[in-house]
Amino acid sequence: MDQLEFAYPWAFILLPLPVLVYWFVPAYRSREDAIKVPFFTEILRALNETPKVAAGLLSPKHWQRGMLILSWLLIVTALAKPSILGEVQTREAFGRDVLMLVDLSGSMDEADFTTADGSTLTRLNAAKNVLKTFIAKRSGDRFGLILFGDAAFIQTPFTADQQVWLSLLEEAQTGMAGQSTHLGDAIGLGIKVFEQNPQPSEQQVMIVLTDGNDTGSFVEPVDAAKIAAARGIKIYTIAMGDPTHVGEQPMDMEVVQRVSQLTQARAFIAIDQAELDKAYQLIDKLEPQQYSSASFRPKITLHYYLIAIVLALHLLIFSWMTLRQMFSRAEVANE
Questions:
Q1: Which of 25, 142, 183, 195 has the fewest other C-beta atoms within 10 Å?
Q2: Domain VWFA: where (predicted)?
Q3: What 8-state DSSP symbol labels residue 266?
Q4: Is 234 exposed, middle or buried (0-12, 13-18, 19+ CB in 10 A)?
Q5: Which residues are 207's β-sheet partners?
Q6: Can you tell me whether residue 181 is helix, strand or coil?
Q7: Cα torsion angle, 101, 215, 123, 238, sign
């Protein structure tokens, strides 16, 4: 009972009100016409009755008095609006919204990424492996995924469900969005995703994995980066593989660097699995995990339960008295 609280404890001063009414407000009296007969005494003697003062005054029974007292106690307690503390609940606040932009152009299928054991992976599979490790370390962030090639499309909006995000990433295959690289359009779509986020966070990060230059976007990557900088979005770019012999043309690292610098972020070059791991480890340090939660105990009000008890008791008694009266009349009629 140490958790019981009253919003209006002053309501309990109303408890003695019925006693004051009983003491200071007289009972209702009414005058009625009567016939005076000189032989009233003989009639009483014949009926074996004795005259009583205020014979017409109704006196409540003990259980009726108890019901009135109980009802008044419940009503006054309800007016005080009692409440108890519920179970502890935790409200989680996510730290960052991280949007991944993954290039699915044809060159991402090149198997030139060497792992620690000497085996080779395609650029896309290497990116998937690193992303799995990166995501697993950041339980407080929400992640979105954009895949791009000839066009960019949203694979998944921002979500805190890592398993769903990773399963959708696993479905990505080279060529799904075309063979070329429209980097500027992908960044533009990413900005739109951030703007339409129903629960935006203060920290907005975009990580771009690509292995080629922009080839025909409606918006140039540098121009898209300027818009992102104005929106407070950081863009980390990771140039994958050696584009000097694979892809449409050598990657323009000046553009890649410029995109990140405009948004106060960094650009990386990853020519193998180890370099790609280092790039994500550094991003993880530059954008550390932010996660907070607040615990609280909600108040559960009880006043409507008390009023419901009063109503239920009175309905029950009224129904019982009505049925009792009906049975009594039926017995008299049968006699």
A1: 25
A2: 97-286
A3: -
A4: buried
A5: 100, 236
A6: coil
A7: negative
- Identity (one letter) of the amino acid at 298? P
* Residue 50 DSSP label: -
Tokens for 321, please give them: 């008295």
At a CB cut-off of 8 Å and minimum separation 6, what does 153 contact? Answer: 146, 147, 177, 189
Question: By three-state DSSP, how is residue 180 classified?
Answer: coil
* Residue 316: CA count within 13 A, CB half-sphere: 7
The pair of structure tokens assigned to 182 is 């429209």
pLDDT at 254: 85
- Looking at residue 235, its pLDDT comes to 92
Three-state DSSP at 192 gives: helix
**Rounded Cα–Cα distance for residues 241 and 29 (Å):** 104
CB contact set of 244 (below 8 Å; sequence gap of 6+): 250
Rounded CA gap, 187 and 185, in Å? 5
- What the block records as the tokens of 133 is 């490790």
| Average pLDDT per consecutive 10 residues, the chain (335 residues; last block may be shorter) | 79 89 75 69 76 59 84 91 80 74 85 78 86 80 89 89 89 82 91 85 84 82 92 89 56 85 88 79 73 69 89 89 82 70
Which phi-psi region, left, alpha or beta, contains residue 319 (left: φ > 0; alpha: ψ -120 to 50)?
alpha
**CB 67 within 8 Å of CB 313:** yes
